[in-house]
Amino acid sequence: MIELTPSQRLLMGPGPSNVSYRVLRAMSTPLVGHLDPEFMAIMDQVCQMLRHLFQTQNQMTFPVSGTGSAGLEAALVNLLEPGDTAVVCVHGVFGQRLTEVASRCGARVVNVEAPWGQPIDVQQLIETLQKHPQAKLCAIVHAETSTGVLQPLEELGAYLKGQGTLLVVDTVTSLAGVPVKVDDWGIDVCYSGTQKCLSVPPGCAPITFSPKALEVVGKRKSKVQSWYLDVRLLQKYWGSERLYHHTAPITMIYGLYEGLRIILEEGLEARFARHRELSARLAQGLAGLGFTFLAKEGYRLPPLTSVFPPQAELVEPLRKKLLSDYGIEVGGGLGAYAGKIWRIGLMGETCRAQNIAILLDALGREL
Predict the structure, then answer these.
(1) How many Cα atoms are found within 13 Å in the side-chain-facing hemisphere of 83?
(2) What is the mean pLDDT of the chain?
(3) Strand 149-150 relative to strand 137-141, pairing
(4) What are the tens digits of pLDDT across the range 49-97?
(5) Measured between alpha carbons, how far is 58 from 172 in angstroms, rounded to an integer?
(6) Contact 27, 239 (CB under 8 A)
(7) What percent of the chain shows pLDDT beyond 70?
(8) How far is CA 207 from the centre of its chain?
């Protein structure tokens, strides 16, 4: 078999994003054991940096060993038991995925929906929660990757702070790209992924559990259906006891450690401003080439722009040409928008002015 020689790509799709040489270098450093005292110290530092990123004091903040979907599973399988009620918001593919996992937990799912490309109506959601005061949790996607919609959360979080219902939030495409304020917004469980705005390879799912959420887990009548994702067992590994649970992905943790260092060196506010300002520059350039936008202005997600190309018949052929001739990856649509839109990512390391210029130049040549 020949040696691996994957092509160099400019990753401007919905993830993964490009990765800094510093992260790749960290991942090439020597392995130690997953119970080695040196690795334990790295684990502690990763958790502390994740608390800063999530803007939380939650002690149980750690990376799940698995991709962002493992974070989703960890959030729901720990909280839901058969017969529980879950209010789940759906305005894209990942709201549908929350519904699927909640139903597999045996929960009775009550959906609150909005057309794809639009945010959930928070007042409608609150009215639904008032009709279902027994709901164990309300799950919502902050940044819907399938449409590029950024969902406001402050009003919902303020309402639920005084309620028994837990707030579960998917921040897979928003964490480290736009503000995520777990404590201020009253979020009880929040999960993400490493491969988007953190600019670390896919393989870990940062997650945080509030004391209120852990109390609910502790009062379960049945075992968590997943042994691997049981937060009470994971707490003994990531916490002070350091009891063996599973072999952590050591090299991935190295990469996450360095990726988080890069984020904190830049500073959260500066990072958010970079994503916001360069997203506006990309949108201006795309509009000048005849692209139109799926998400309404004011609800557009800076790290991910969903657009209709100027000629519908070019949606897939032009996307493939960008990859084959220019080495630029942009994402296609999902679900109802498959073959109709592009999803253009400006996440983390990819979010650079020169990358916008490269994409717009290629599009100008082809259009």
Answers:
(1) 3
(2) 97
(3) unpaired
(4) 999 999 999 999 999 999 999 999 999 999 999 999 999 999 999 999 9
(5) 19
(6) no
(7) 100
(8) 10
| % of the chain residues with pLDDT over 90 | 99
Q: How far apart are CA 239 and CA 232, in angstroms?
A: 10
- Alpha helices in 108-224, H assignment, sequence order: 122-131, 154-160, 211-218
- Name 241's Cβ contacts closer than 8 Å, sequence gap at least 6: none
For residue 186, which of 172, 174, 168 has the smallest C-alpha distance?
168
Q: How far is CA 12 from the centre of its chain?
A: 16
Phi/psi region, residue 30 (left: phi>0; alpha: psi -120 to 50; beta: rest), is beta
pLDDT at residue number 162: 84
CA distances from 6 to 2, 204, 327, 349 (A): 12, 22, 11, 19
pLDDT at 37 over 90: yes
Q: Which of 80, 79, 51, 46 is nearest to 65 (CA)?
A: 46
Q: What is the pLDDT of residues 300-325, one digit of tens each?
A: 999 999 999 999 999 999 999 999 99
The pair of three-digit structure tokens given for residue 358, joined into one six-digit string = 């490269």
Q: Where are the alpha helices (DSSP H) in 114-180?
A: 122-131, 154-160
Taking the C-alpha atoms of residue 328 and residue 13, their distance in angstroms, rounded to an integer, is 9
Rounded (10°) CA dihedral 44, 50, 51, 56: -150
pLDDT digits (tens, 9 = 90+) for 171-216: 999 999 999 999 999 999 999 999 999 999 999 999 999 999 999 9
Residue with structure tokens 């006891």?
241
DSSP 215-237: HHHHT-SS--S-STT-HHHHHHH
List the one residue out of 196, 206, 151 whose CA is nearest residue 173: 196
What domains can you pick out in the chain, each with its CATH number?
10-15+267-366 (3.90.1150.10), 21-264 (3.40.640.10)
Mean pLDDT within 139-151: 98
Q: Which two tokens stand for residue 365?
A: 């040549």
At 191, list the tokens. 């999960």
